[in-house]
Amino acid sequence: MKSIPTKSAVVYFNSDVYIELNRHIKNTNPSSIFILVDTNTHDYCLPQFLSKLESNNIVVEVMEMPEGEDHKTIDICTGVWEALSEYHADRKSLMINLGGGVVTDLGGFVASTYMRGIDYINVPTSLLAMVDASVGGKTGVDLGSLKNQIGVISEGSMVLIDTSFLDTLPQNHMISGYAEMIKHGLITDRNYWDTLTQLEKLDISDLDQLIYDSVVIKNNIVSEDPTEKGLRKILNFGHTLGHAIESYFLQNADKTPLLHGEAIAIGMLLEAYLSTKVCGMSLEELANITDGILKSFQKVEINHQDLEVIIRLLKHDKKNSHGKVKFVLLNAIGKPTIDCEVSNDLIFEAFDYYNNL
């Protein structure tokens, strides 16, 4: 597969990954290399990665963090910053983030802020990170249960996508990443959406191309609007309500936390309904989207008493402006509209639609 140049980095795939990584290390000659993993990627991905890493006698240190969204915090960042300092990382050190979206988001933020920024490389090991989290330079951590409230936009030197790491991924995490691919189709490309919703006609050999296509879609958007002043906002389809739902389920001890993609799938269904009310999207399109998402994602019980809290959480969404909640909605599949305002009454209607599916 051809590499994909981004604004200041390059995304490499499969057979090129370790060739380009080792070439980068040889050419830049970092003073030290730090590999950030979580408890899962330490066991399942690190041995393969280290076996192909040519460090050229450069000291390599591995830093391990707990796995899971609830550890995507400033406290973990502080631990990683302190470890870098204790091991005498300097401005010529290289940080490699080997993991899913939590590791690439947090690791990118740590690298971008340590000594005002050191070189870093993302090696995504989950489908979510491959198609979304590791590409585009968004780094950061959660503030309590509020998603990605602290961070910077700062790209690393390269993204290395080795799809063999997906063999280590549980099925529910594969499906979680699939939600972001669905989103890419809904906001830009009806043909891509149609392909994704006919997975029963595909086999595993098709997955590499679908991942590649998804990265191309995201990169095209980010390249045109790297700092999210306009077009890049469309990548938030499903995320306004999805993030609020994800935060609510994370902070509520009575709820089972949702994976990111599981929450975004709910958000896309809700925001597809809102699209019919605000943007005039047809009911046929809504049915198409609903059927396509429910093929892969099970409904989640959301009680009426949950809704007030979820709606209150919307005020923390990063797209908001002047106290107004701003949604990305669809005129049709592949035709998004940004900065849409939606009444609370319509949001309650959308949840009624979802709960009655």
Written description of the protein model:
- This protein has 357 residues and is α/β, with parallel strands linked by helices.
- The chain is 47% helix and 17% strand.
- It has helices spanning 17-28, 39-44, 46-52, 74-86, 101-113, 127-133, 171-188, 190-196, 207-224, 239-251, 260-278, 283-294, 304-313, 344-355; strands at residues 4-5, 10-13, 33-38, 60-65, 94-99, 119-124, 138-143, 146-153, 158-161, 327-332, 335-340.
- It has a seven-stranded mixed beta sheet with strand order 1-2-9-6-5-3-4, sandwiched between helices. The protein has a two-stranded antiparallel ribbon with strand order 7-8. The protein has a two-stranded antiparallel ribbon with strand order 10-11.
- Helix 7 crosses helix 9 and helix 11 (260-278) crosses helix 14.
- The mean pLDDT is 94.
- Residues 63-175 form the 3-dehydroquinate synthase N-terminal domain.
- Pfam families: DHQ_synthase (PF01761), DHQS_C (PF24621).
- InterPro entries: Dehydroquinate_synthase, DHQ_synth_AroB, DHQ_synth_fam, DHQS/DOIS_N, DHQS_C.
- Catalyzes the conversion of 3-deoxy-D-arabino-heptulosonate 7-phosphate (DAHP) to dehydroquinate (DHQ).
